[in-house]
C-alpha cells in the first residue's frame, strides 16, 4: 500500500481509528528498522506533541505537520510493503495509545519529556544539541522545549 492511500483512508475514518492509522504509518516510516523500544519512543514523542496541541489537535495532524515526521518528508507514493514491519508498527501504535491514555503517573514513559528525535544518518537540525533524553538504536531523543498538557 502507498502512503497517500493510507493518509486518504485515515481522513475518512473516525478519529480514534484515524489516529491509530497515522501513528502506525509514522512508526513504519520512521522506525521500522529500530528495536521495539525505539518504535515506542517515537510513538511517545508524537503522543506528547498531540497532548501539547502545538503541532495539531490529533495524531494525524501532528504527524503530518510540515517537516515534522516522515509522512511529510517522503514521497506520497512511498510503498509500505514490509508486512511484518507494518504489523509490528500497528501493534506498537495501539499499545502506545493505550499506555498514553492512562493517567500521567501510571503510564510508562520511555523518553520522559522528549519532544523531538533525530535519526543519526539523516537529520542535522538546528535543535540537535538540545538536552538528550536517550539514544535508542540510531535515534536520539531530545527535550527541546517543555511541553505542557493542554486542557
Describe this structure in words.
The protein has 151 residues and is mainly alpha-helical. The chain has a domain of 105 residues. The protein is 44% helix and 10% strand. It is built from five helices and three strands. The chain has a three-stranded antiparallel sheet, covered by helices on one side. A hairpin with a 2-residue loop joins β2 and β3. α2 packs across α3 and α2 crosses α5. The radius of gyration is 14 Å and the shape is globular. The chain starts with a helix and ends in an 8-residue tail after the last strand. The mean pLDDT is 91.
Proportion of helical residues = 40-55%
Q: What topology, given as strand order, has the largest sheet?
A: 1-3-2
What's the gyration radius in Å?
A: 14 Å
How many distinct beta strands?
Answer: 3
Order of helices and strands: HHHHHEEE
Q: What summary fits the major beta sheet?
A: 3 strands, antiparallel
Give the strand content: 5-15%
Structural shape: globular
